[in-house]
Amino acid sequence: MRVRSVSAKIVFIGFEVPTEGNEDPFMQTISKQISELPNLILVSSTGNTSLAAY
User: Fold this and answer.
1) Which residues pair with 41 in a beta bridge?
2) What pLDDT score does 54 carry?
3) Which residues pair with 12 in a beta bridge?
4) What is the C-alpha to C-alpha distance for residues 20 and 44, in angstroms, rounded to an integer?
5) Which residues lie closer than 8 Å to 9 by C-beta, 6 or more apart?
6) What is the pLDDT of residue 22?
7) CA 3, CA 26: separation in Å to the nearest integer?
8) How far is residue 39's CA from residue 17's CA, in Å, rounded to a whole number?
9) DSSP alpha helices (H): ranges in the chain?
10) Rounded to an integer, what distance in angstroms lies between the CA atom of residue 9 and that of residue 19?
């Protein structure tokens, strides 16, 4: 994701809301994934919808 998105002006990232008690592991994981990305929008996306655009 970082390689493809590093030059983007904005990145949309889909995620499922973590269950109660799993917020810290979620934030640790997502923080690592987005640390080098430009402006981004996190989108709560449950279901089988693909948010990938190539």
Assistant:
1) 12
2) 56
3) 41
4) 15
5) 38, 39
6) 92
7) 22
8) 20
9) 2-5, 23-34
10) 31
Phi-psi region of 47 (alpha: psi -120 to 50; beta: other; left: phi over 0): left
Mean per-residue pLDDT pooled into runs of 10, the chain (54 residues): 80 87 92 84 76 60
Q: By the 8 A CB rule, do 43 and 10 touch? A: no
* CA–CA dist 50, 54 (Å, integer): 11
pLDDT at res. 23 = 93
Partnered with residue 10 across adjacent β-strands are 39
Return the pLDDT at 53: 59
